[in-house]
Design goal:
Blueprint (H helix, E strand, L loop, with lengths): L1 E6 L7 E6 L7 E11 L1 H8 L8 E2 L3 E9 L11 E4 L9 H4 L18 E3 L5 E4 L9 E5 L3 E3 L15 H12 L8 E4 L3 H12 L5 E5 L5 H7 L3 E4 L4 H8 L5 E6 L4 H9 L1 E9 L13 H7 L2 E4 L7 H13 L9 E5 L4 H10 L4 E5 L2
Parallel strand pairs: 4-8, 11-12, 11-14, 12-13, 14-15, 15-16, 17-18
Antiparallel strand pairs: 1-2, 1-4, 2-7, 3-5, 3-9, 3-18, 5-6, 6-10, 7-8
Helix pairs in contact: 3-4, 3-9
Length: about 350
């Protein structure tokens, strides 16, 4: 038996309790978690913004050590250090055939299949986003693990599973930021901090961070922001003033609110690119006039998992980390246990802090 944070039903508090995880079956891997990041997507799963069968063990951003493998597994062996991939591509669907694995039609299939049981009564549990890393151990398919490159601390490596791949990919793959371009990042949470570091790595400038909390300024500047703005009604106007009256070449929205998306769009120059990373609810409606769509010639695009291919991008990120260009530890503002996840959810809702990291003994 292992301890886990269980979501009994949508919008109910998490319960830390013991669960029973079976031995890995054919093609499966059992992992002892070293750490798990608390992502805003987990909050969205818990409150019903994103669909997830319940009861479930949430958590999708994690890293750990392989303890056991099932029949037919060849990618890893016991003792290997790995990063969890919550959206493993099937390699066979229409989108995978287009070389767009981040849009894989079957990536979320594992989340709909029970994987463990409550120790108390034997009730079946579902794995949050297919990975269930808010637990001391988990069992996932072989294609949901990525070998961790050498030289990367295992605990901090958990962030590579979502925040870093998403933020880096938003800058380098979705927005395709070029050296010397100006960038604004809206929302200085885990993904936003990764986006700021990635913009700096890309050679962008100026790099403008926008957030509702003044306390985020130090985090933002440490990540690479050259300017920091408190979000207000005239945010777009102030960004244009910082960029010669034009607006930024690129705006990265990491909040998922209609108002923020609209502001990011308005802060982007004519012909610029606005990339939406934040996950908003269906009630968040954004409107544009037909005339402005024509006149400004901007590109507005969504971004799933940073438009990343984890197997391709993880070695690249590892090289940036080893070279000191990407600092995983700087994104973590709190290290907690399983019992601290509800408070981390509250902090995210209130816009406080960067990434909270669940660290297992």
């Amino acid at each position: 038996m292992v301890r886990a944070a269980v979501l009994p039903a949508v919008s109910q508090p998490l319960i830390v309790t013991e669960i029973e995880i079976p031995a890995p079956g054919p093609g499966q891997v059992r992992i002892r978690l070293a750490a798990a990041g608390v992502c805003h997507s987990d909050l969205s799963l818990s409150n019903g913004t994103l669909r997830q069968p319940v009861p479930a063990v949430l958590g999708h951003e994690g890293a750990g050590t392989v303890t056991e493998v099932g029949e037919g597994v060849t990618a890893v062996v016991p003792g290997d250090r790995v990063v969890l991939n919550w959206a493993p591509s099937c390699g066979a669907c229409h989108f995978c055939a287009l070389d767009e694995p981040w849009l894989c039609a079957n990536a979320g299939a594992a989340a709909t299949v029970p994987y463990a049981k409550l120790a108390a009564d034997g009730s079946e549990l579902y794995p949050g986003l297919g990975t269930a890393v808010f637990a001391e151990e988990t069992v996932v398919s072989e294609n949901a693990v990525l070998p961790l490159p050498d030289g990367i601390p295992l605990t901090d490596a958990a962030l590579l599973g979502c925040a870093v791949l998403t933020g880096y990919g938003a800058v380098h793959h979705a927005a395709r930021v070029r050296t010397g371009e100006s960038v604004a990042v809206f929302g200085v949470g885990g993904v936003g901090l990764s986006g700021l570091q990635s913009a700096r790595i890309a050679g962008a400038g100026p790099v403008i961070a926008v957030d509702v909390s003044p306390a985020k300024e130090e985090l933002a500047r440490a990540a690479g922001a050259t300017e920091f703005l408190i979000a207000s009604e005239d945010t777009a106007k102030r960004i244009r003033k910082l960029t010669g009256g034009y607006g930024t070449d690129v705006a990265i929205e990491c909040v998922g609110r209609a108002e923020t998306i609209r502001t990011a769009w308005s802060a982007t120059r004519r012909g610029g690119r606005t990339t939406v990373v934040g996950i908003g609810g269906q009630d968040q409606q954004v409107t544009f006039s037909a005339l402005e769509l024509f006149y400004f010639g901007r590109t507005l695009s969504g971004c799933v998992y940073g438009n990343s291919d984890p197997a391709r991008d993880l070695p690249v990120l590892a090289e940036h980390i080893r070279a000191g260009r990407l600092d995983l530890g700087a994104m973590v503002t709190e290290r907690i246990g399983l019992d601290g996840i509800p408070a981390a959810f509250e902090a995210m809702t209130a816009g406080r802090g960067g990434r909270a990291l669940v660290v297992f003994d």
